[in-house]
Structures are given as structure tokens and as C-alpha cells.
């Protein structure tokens, strides 16, 4: 298999491995162990890390996922349409100092509703950084709902930007969760 075809075939695997590794060398070691075509050559290419939250169902029936992307000292947020597999990304912003995926709860919103928050990355917007993501809550039957918005680290408040949407979380199940997107 040619080097180009091998690279294309491993693209999804590479992104997944790089996103979960502690660095380029660790990812290359993992790939060499599982690559029957031979070792890959490490490059100085930047590592792109994508983390996504739990899907919400839009009014038109599409399952949309809010994702965060980190490249070096820059970050941005976007939406993944699960039906088409396409991302729509916002502009890049400098990262704030802490980049652990945010999962807080309960987080109060500007409208007084509290719920779990899931978001990433923390961008250098505002006095203490802003994290874009979703706030989640359960109804009386245990069904999960979410709404997109941003968490202001200076005020400790979630600012919703839309209505509550049905979540892909199972009723009564643990939610929301992070996952990596290839």
C-alpha cells in the first residue's frame, strides 16, 4: 500500500489517537504497533483535538452536537450534523489558561434555570474566559433536554442562546457525556 493511501486510510484513526494521547510521540508509538504496513514517520504537524458533547435534536429532526476544537494555543466551537457528518466551525480565539473539558452542575442560567453544563474549550473572551456548550436538565419522566449557550467564568452564569431541545441521552441514564470525534 502506498504511503499516500496508508495516510488516507488512517486519517480517522490518527485524529482519534492524537486526541487521546499525551503527545505526538505517544500517538506515533500506538500507530506503529497497530500498523501492519510499517512505521509512520512523525512530523511536526500540529495536533488538532476535537471533543463533542451529547447530541440534541433540532426542531427539524437533525441530531446536532456542539464540539470544541483545540489547535495549539487557539480554540473554537462548532456544530456537528450527525446525519451528514459535517462540521460548521466558528472563528479561532486564543485559549484561556485551563483547557480541561468543562462539566459542571448544577450551573445557574441567566433565566434562573439550573442544569448540568458541558462545554469546551475555554476561550479568552471576557474577564475570566468563556466556554461554549450546552446546559442539560431532566424532566419528571427522566428524559434529558439541552440548550446551547455559553458559560461566563467571571459571573458563574450560563447564557442560553436557544430553546430546550430533546437530548440523545437515554431516559433515566447518566448524561451528558463527552466523546471524541474522528
Automatic annotation (TrEMBL):
Where is the signal peptide, in residue numbers?
1-25
Name the keywords, alphabetized: Signal
The protein's name in its UniProt record: LGFP repeat-containing protein
